[in-house]
Design brief:
heterotrimer; A mainly alpha (298); B alpha/beta (239); C mainly alpha (313); A: 298 residues; mainly alpha; two-stranded antiparallel ribbon; 3% strand; globular; C: 313 residues; ABC transporter involved in vitamin B12 uptake, BtuC; three-stranded antiparallel beta sheet; 13 helices; disordered C terminus
Chain lengths: 298, 239, 313
């Protein structure tokens, strides 16, 4: 019983970082209706900038976080300008494949600059975990959860209460009409991409600082976790992204504890697969076929 | 007010506009007639900057619009009410109006204008918190007009505002068009419903296969036999 | 021919099958991130057949293809009700499930005092059919290309046939195809089955080429690569995905001076290529143009005349 609760607590904490990854993914998908496979690798590039700063100049966690988020955002803009902005309407698969090509490019660039397989990453806090009855709460996990909830609230506010949010929702609703009311769609989309990658950068920083290391494989890991959490939560839904992340985290934590890492990964894909077959709209998304969540078929 | 000269817009190798020239006089309602596929919507989208012309010029009071982004064209005082209305379906009526004023920074003025729109279109007031996608066709058309007006345009472009609407609603829309014009807005209208257009417009152009083939006043239009048969005859021309 | 060249060419041949497999589904307008699952299934099935059951190679490859097709149809029936991104992610989830199941699969038999067979994440060693039967690497390469040519000929015939036209119609506009009385669902499952068989053949050949397979080789990377080949080479003809493989593995692997920069150059080139030609090098327009020139050059008579979209006149 204690294990069950402790696992659930850990799952929620880790899941909040999955939720953050999904959040950035959802934002990009909402604005572009296209899949950015380079999402994770952009974050990984941020992580590499962070580790260089940490290893070479002994920067503290906050400075590393700042540069990592900035690095991810810049890499995100690079991907958007190269793979998404120049593509005409209807070239959805081309954008996706192009973003995959850039994934390969970013990964190799990371290996070229730092050829060892792993590099250290600064821990967020070395403080002792909080004890709460028989349960342990890790401080860095708590920060993770706090950041996830705070950022979700901030994004909801930005989308529904600011001029930029209005522009993004207009673009999501109808890109042509967004042009006609005088929104600079190209710039808005680029900024949305940068913001989404920055959110991914926050998530990536939190995960890496718990792991205390970064590898080139982190890009693929982040893309996959974000994708799974986004689809489970429901394509196009922001609260769904967070909930999807939490559910994924809890399922993984239990499976890891009872069955080991292989079953943990298997379970994540089974949950995703079953959701897609039985309820493709996910936890909170609109069912596919309704206009906003429906991906354009190529 | 608007001078279009020798405008060419192409999709790949196919020229949809093959050298279009026309003039829209300030303070008037100008109407562009023509069959489907003539290039009317392409012309509207080109003026609004969504499509880029290959050649030719679009001058608004002498200032060149061709080549500008849609956002810049809105800031020059041109607003388009697009074909099929294209409201933002998952935003409320109020937010749609707010989006229409995207380039304006005078909050008080924007709020006053929204109130003015509500007074002119009472249905929109009633439904201000409703998602625009759930409005009826006529209400969406009014919302699209109101949204365009929120940018305080000098020139209002309207692409087939009567499309798919019931006759009573069409009459209402045309009343609004006449009213807006009386209040001083210059209007350039694309229409297939020539009967309705004849009642409000001051100047007509006819477009066929990417070219302007007729220019005249309502009187001249009504006298032209070919146009009579195609657009004003007892049977509507093959649309 | 030196061993290195034979190795690269064999690799190109084998990977071409999985590229073709992703291409069949692209024809019907669906993106699959999961063709590597059927490649893996074919590889394991054919490897088990020769190494553990002592089957001849030909039977093992056919068996791998059959299992590949069967599992693709089985997964296709429920997943092809989904569209676009939903289908793509479902195939990804399935393929990852298959990969992890192979990590858990232990099925070993004692042969000549040695344990042979899949051993979980450690992979499946000693698929030694080509050594035991004295097949040289050159001979095996020729075998791979013979199978590829045969498959490709059938594929080109298929593209010219009614079925090929139907696949493209579904890819262009599913709703419209449905209104024409085409059973969209059944044809998509058929395309998935063909794709599964192609990947299965490729997998079977791959297992015997490398003699050692491990689940890790069949990850998402392989799947997305095989999808990308069609887009790079072009969606206008079955030669497109092959061209894609050739460019990636052939051209870039061959220029060894680029070693550390290969992906940096490749990634950039692909991104730029897709801006200029969003449907690949050999896209429909170019293929149509080449087809017209071809017919001009060829003397009249003796050939079936083809209309603009490839139908017989």
């Amino acid at each position: 019983m204690i294990d069950l609760v402790q696992n659930t607590i850990d799952g929620v904490m880790i899941g909040s970082s999955y939720g953050l990854l999904a959040l950035g993914f959802t934002l990009i998908f909402g604005v572009m209706r296209r899949l950015n496979l380079s999402y994770g690798p952009s974050i990984m590039i941020g992580g590499y900038v962070g580790t260089v700063l940490y290893v070479q100049y002994g920067a503290g966690p906050l400075a590393v976080a700042g540069t990592m988020i900035l690095g991810a955002a810049i890499a995100g803009i690079y991907v958007e300008r190269l793979c998404f902005a120049p593509m005409r309407m209807g070239a959805g698969i081309a954008s996706m494949v192009s973003s995959f090509a850039i994934w390969m490019q970013l990964e190799q660039a990371a290996i070229l600059v730092l050829p060892r397989h792993t590099y250290p990453f600064p821990p967020l806090t070395t403080g002792a975990p909080l004890e709460w009855g028989p349960f342990l709460l890790r401080l860095d996990h708590l920060i993770m959860l706090g950041c996830a909830l705070g950022l979700t609230a901030a994004i909801q506010f930005a989308l529904y209460r600011t001029r930029f949010g209005l522009a993004l929702r207009a673009i999501i609703g109808n890109p042509v009409a967004a042009h006609l009311v005088g929104i600079n769609v190209s710039v808005a989309v680029m900024l949305a991409f940068a913001a989404a990658s920055a959110i991914g950068g926050v998530a990536g920083f939190l995960v890496l600082s718990v792991d205390q290391q970064v590898t080139p494989m982190f890009g693929m890991w982040a893309t996959l976790k974000g994708l799974i959490a986004m689809m489970i939560g429901g394509l196009g839904s922001i609260p769904g992204a967070i909930l999807g992340g939490l559910l994924l985290g809890v399922v993984e934590a239990h499976c890891q504890w009872y069955f080991g890492p292989q079953i943990r990964d298997l379970a994540a894909y089974i949950v995703l697969f079953v959701f897609l077959l039985v309820h493709p709209g996910g936890l909170l998304g609109r069912a596919p076929g309704s206009d906003i969540a429906a991906p354009r078929t190529p | 007010m608007l001078d279009v000269t020798d405008l060419v817009t192409a999709y790949g190798k196919i020229e949809a506009l093959k050298g279009v020239s026309l003039q829209v006089e300030g303070g008037k309602i100008t109407c562009l007639l023509g069959p489907n596929g003539a290039g009317k919507t392409t012309l509207m989208m080109t003026i609004a900057g969504v499509l880029q012309p290959r050649r030719g010029s679009i001058r608004l009071k002498g200032a060149e619009l061709a080549g500008l982004s849609p956002a810049r064209i809105v800031s020059q005082g041109v607003a388009l009410v697009p074909e099929n209305r294209l409201v933002f379906p998952h935003m409320s009526v109020y937010e749609n109006l707010l989006a229409g004023a995207y380039q304006r920074h005078d909050k008080a003025g924007v709020n006053a204008d929204i109130e003015r729109m509500y007074a002119r279109f009472p249905q929109l007031h009633e439904r201000s918190e409703q998602m625009a996608g759930t409005l009826s066709g006529g209400e969406q058309q009014m919302l699209a007009v109101a949204r365009a007006l929120m940018s305080q345009p000098r020139l209002l472009l309207m692409d087939e505002p009567s499309l798919g609407l019931a006759p009573l609603i069409v009459a209402e829309i045309f009343n609004i068009i006449a009213e807006l014009n009386r209040d001083g807005t210059t209007i350039f209208l694309v229409e297939q419903n020539a009967h309705m257009a004849l009642q409000v417009a001051h100047q007509f152009f006819l477009m066929e296969q990417g070219r302007i083939t007729f220019k005249g006043t309502p009187g001249q239009l009504a006298e032209d036999e070919v146009i009579q048969r195609a657009y004003l005859g007892t049977r509507r021309a093959a649309g | 021919m030196d061993d290195y060249l034979i190795g690269v060419l064999s690799n190109i041949g084998v990977i071409s099958f999985i590229a073709l497999s992703a291409y069949v589904l692209l024809l019907t307008g669906e993106i699959s991130f999961g063709q590597q699952a059927f490649f893996a299934i074919g590889a394991y099935a054919a490897g088990i057949a020769t190494a553990l059951w002592g089957w001849p190679l030909a039977a093992a490859i056919v068996w791998g293809a059959a299992i590949g097709a069967g599992s693709a149809i089985l997964v296709g029936v429920p997943t092809l009700r989904l569209h676009g991104l939903y289908f793509a992610i479902a195939t990804l989830a399935f393929a990852e499930m298959v990969r992890i199941l192979f990590e858990l699969l232990r099925y070993q038999v004692l042969i000549d005092g040695e344990w042979v067979g899949p051993n979980g994440a450690d992979g499946f060693r000693n698929i030694r059919y080509i050594f035991e039967n004295d097949i040289s690497s050159l001979q095996f390469m020729i075998l791979i290309y013979a199978v590829l040519v045969a498959t490709l000929s059938m594929f080109l015939l298929l593209e010219r046939s009614r079925l090929g036209v139907i696949f493209r119609m579904i890819g262009e506009d599913e709703t419209l195809a449905g209104l024409q009385g085409i059973s969209v669902a059944r044809h998509k499952v058929l395309a998935a089955g063909i794709g599964g068989a192609l990947a299965g053949i490729g997998g079977g050949l791959y297992a015997h080429l490398t003699t050692y397979i491990e689940p890790r080789s069949f990850d998402v990377m392989l799947g997305v690569h095989s999808l990308a080949y069609g887009l790079i080479g072009g969606l206008g003809t079955a030669f497109g995905p092959l061209l894609g493989v050739l460019i990636d593995i052939g051209l870039l692997e061959a220029i060894r001076a680029l070693a550390g920069y290969r992906m940096i150059i490749f990634g950039g080139l692909v991104a730029i290529l897709l801006i200029i030609r969003p449907r690949g090098l050999l896209d429909e327009k170019l293929v149509h143009k080449i087809g017209r020139m071809w017919r001009l050059i060829l003397p009249r008579g003796g050939r079936v005349k083809l209309g603009p979209s490839g139908e017989k006149i």
